[in-house]
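Researcher: Good morning. I'm working through a list of sequences from a screen, and I'd like to move beyond sequence-only analysis. For each chain I'm collecting a predicted structure so we can compare shapes side by side. This is the next one on the list. No need for commentary yet; just the structure.
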Amino acid sequence: MMMKTRTPTLPYVAAGLTALVALAGFLGFFIIDPSSRFRYWLIGFDGMGSFVLIAAIAVAASVLLHHLRFKYSSWASVLPIALCLTIFIGGPALISVLMQIAAAALVGFALLSRLWNATQSDPASQSDALALGLLSTLSGLAVFSTLLWGMSHFPINYSGVHALLYVSLSIAALLIIRVEDWRLLGGLRRFSINAEPDLRLSLLIAPGLVACLTLLFMTALPEFGSDARAAYQSFFEHMRFNARWHHDPALAAWGLQPLGGLHLAGSVYLLGGESASRLQNAMMMLLSLGAAAMTAGLVSRTRLGAAACFSIVATIPLLLELTSEFYYDNTVAAFVMGAVLSMLCLLKTRSSHQATPFLVALAICLAGASATKHTSWLLTIVFGALCAALILLRHDRPVRSLCILLGSGIVSFAALVLPIAVFAYVTSGNPVFPYYNQIFQSPFYPPEQHSTPHTGYLGWDVLFRAVFDTHTFSSSDFRGGFGLAILLSIPAILTAAFVKKARLAMTLCVGLVLLFIGLSAMQNDLRLLWPVSLAVMALSTGLLSQWIETPGWASRLFIASIVSISAIQLLLMPAGGHGVPGVNVRQAISPKAADSLYRRRAPTAAINAMLDNLPDRTERRLFLSTLMGPYSTTGLEDGWYTYLARLRIHRSNSEDAMLETLQTLSPDAIILGTRGHRRWLNPSIYELVNRHAHTVIDYPGHQVFLMDNLIAFPITPEQPEDSQALFDQASGSGSVTGAERLVFNFLNQDTSIERFRVQFTARCEIQEILQIVVAVRAPGQLHEYTLTERPCQGEATPFQSTASAFMPQGSTRVTVEIKTRSGETEYAVSELSAGFKSRFDRNAALGL
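Model: Good morning. Structure tokens for this chain:
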């Protein structure tokens, strides 16, 4: 549909300015700065280019089949893409994600369809039906995010429980939805895959499809993103092993933040593993891109505008980082775009009554964003103000509309966001822990706000610098990683000012550009700016696409410019990732190659897997000068995730101080990075750790020390004198030899003790079995009893034996009995040591 204007030259101006943006991108990235010309280009078909090649072949085959015009050409055109996705994406992962998405869509539709039918009698138009379908899915996911947060407090998080949850909610929603509610989707009947082929549409959408397929293919790779391994996957693993999340600020400084996207991905992780969580993140990307395309379609009132927007935003290089590594910024972007789409839908009508479903969807989407990330709280305030202003300009009864928005907002935020903030305040004393701790003074974090390397930038050239000087605008990103599309906001706003029907969308676009500038002045992290940037790009492309069907060369120039911008961004896509572009297709589809990549790029993941599978599983792990990796136990590190431990460790500048620290932390294993960032580690501390480890394992760039917990609290038997003499003999330079059983008693007077452990070297005849019995007692009762058996290796072959036992509260005595199974064979015991390990609780953490 062509937009009418009293300025006939406006379409040509819009097309010319769009072409100017494309030309500026080509010159700025490929001509003017030759020193970085080839560094982050998509050149050749090795590495990431192998994914792009397969995606391009699949898209080309689909477009060709669609344009052949035989009887089933439109359906056949889907097959190449479906075949490639089947190769890369496994069945369990896909089923897990679809189960969650389908349940969310049904739950959201049960609510919004009732609201629609209660406020209007006509079936929804095609655009409204599509919008309601997408908004229903996002509303359901927003509700699920807080529901899953609540479940994470209890030991019920098993795969079967989560599968039953989604099935039950789906059935309940189907029972609520009435026949007349399904009729609401009647407008979708006019949407057919058998539509007449349109070369312009194919040209516009092809780059976006190539980019999306590439990102979907790359979800088949193992996860080796630093943040994902160090924090987010640790959440998944802890849930998988313990069926709950500890919610302890001393053990995870990030763990009390709003983490809606993490809970959604963690649920499918339980159902389908790591590949399912990565696919769920990519699915949130697709939902955000779909909402962006619908937004542009509503503004431009044409399918070509939606296709243009899809390619523009899908080829943004930053998506490589957000999707190939696990970041839940895609989830924030999906909810924010849902809010923008809701805003445009409710502004289509002047009736507050008819706008009710979209007002409610707007409130739920903003609450979902706020339940996913702290930075969305500011977005919510700005979006609320923008929406209120536009409602005052547009609706006939704006007060009624504002009351509906305010009421639904209060309910949504009270249900989805308030419980998270209240729990954080009750647990840590800071509702936004660990941020703004200079105000709330939580004892679990230093009294200053958590700092980041992104200090912010404010200037008249902020948009240009974000595009052409990305590496200085955001220090952790590469030049070109932000793409070109944000610059389209300039010609979009300039031309839309002359079109009366476009001024509401233009006002919203101006407000979001100002929000982008304000946020970049606070913290110019591209990931945090992405949700607002995506909204700006969608509105800008939609405003410019008003002229896409104008007769003459303006339309052809505009389409060529959009395709050129998409191609430039696709060529720059490797600039959006950190180490991701070097991987290839073979590492995604070959288990052996994937495992080799994982061990090389994510060594702490392999280390934690090894520690998980040890017979005597290490429950407490200390990571020094390395990322934590996905761990399922109590993890401590010298980074900001467990900041109190970091303070204690870095203040240990002598062997005695480090010994006291290790006695307090009592780690079962220490994982030490041996490459770089170890200047703080005193050489004597390294010797101390090495001396008190009973086993040292070398990994690429790492050493793993399995600690003898004698370092925590060394002990000796209490009585009688003959036992003391035998213990001294066995623990000294000598040994105890005989056929009779050895019995040692150890007294525990400390209520904070968690575990007892005994270790010694033994020798005995090869046909015999050595038995170690550990009995934990309280006055008048037996608390714990463990029997460990080791086959003897021969009198000339010593072997190491270890036995341990859990110490329940109230345990006062431990009895260790060493004997052979027959009771008649001689054996020898030497190098005997024993130790208690203290519990690590919140009081211990505060005592650091």
